[in-house]
Amino acid sequence: MNICVFLSAADLDERYTRPARDFAELLGKGGHTLVWGGSESGLMKVVADGVQMAGGRLVGVSVDFLAAKARADADEMVIAADLAERKALLLAKADAVVIMVGGTGTLDEATDILELKKHGRTTKPVVLLNTAGFYDGLKQQFQRMEDEGFLPVPLTDLVFFAEDGVAALAYLEESQGVQ
Q1: Residue 84 has what pLDDT?
Q2: Which stretches does DSSP call E strand in the chain?
């Protein structure tokens, strides 16, 4: 399965890197392909290293102004003209999406895929990996949106909240019929 992972390119501490490394190892050992922003920096590098070392493939989609930070040894690397094209390419190459910890760029990517799902423009499964409770506040906000009628579909149809990588991958594999 081609799994798009939205995540930070920042250098982060062990409470985020250790679970990311564990998840990456699960992806690689499961024979999955990582589809990611292509960066050789921070958490993006940690996940790419883990997937590659465990035998998985790497498909990167960088963007023109970040091309100098793109991973040289990816199995495939595409350079998009801008961030909008990058998001579209990432989603086109993926069977499923996992949202890991990140900043405003990750949040932009997350809300974009959820908006597409809300309008029926994609049926790809989406997992929000809530490492160290990072997304507790966002989960609460999404629940409020649902409770107060702002979501035309149930929240559970849009996103699965996973507390760890094992639960995230199990959900994706089950949703895709992978044994």
Answers
A1: 95
A2: 2-6, 33-36, 57-63, 76-80, 96-99, 126-129, 160-162
Angle among Cα 145, 146, 148 to the nearest 5 degrees reads 70
pLDDT tens, residue by residue, 4-45: 999 999 999 999 999 999 999 999 999 999 999 999 999 999
Distance CA 32, CA 55 (A): 9
Any alpha helices (H) in 55-154, and if so which ranges?
A: 83-92, 104-118, 136-147
Mean pLDDT of 35-63: 97
Record the tokens describing residue 64, joined without a space: 């023109």
Please state, in angstroms and as integers, the Cα–Cα distance from residue 18 to each residue in 1, 55, 160, following that order: 23, 18, 21
Map residue 90 onto helix, strand or coil. Answer: helix
CB-based contact 118:22 (threshold 8 Å): no
CB 99 within 8 A of CB 130: no
pTM of structure? 0.95
- What is the rounded average pLDDT of the residues 43-72? 97
pLDDT tens-digit map of 113-147: 999 999 999 999 999 999 999 999 999 999 999 99
